[in-house]
Amino acid sequence: LIKMPTIRPIADLRDTSKISELCHQKNEPVYITKNGSGHLVVMSMETYERQLGLLDVYRKLGAAEKQVEDGVSLLDGEEVFGRLREKHGK
Question: What are the Cα distances from residue 36, in Å, to 39, 55, 61, 90?
Answer without folding.
Answer: 9, 29, 37, 56
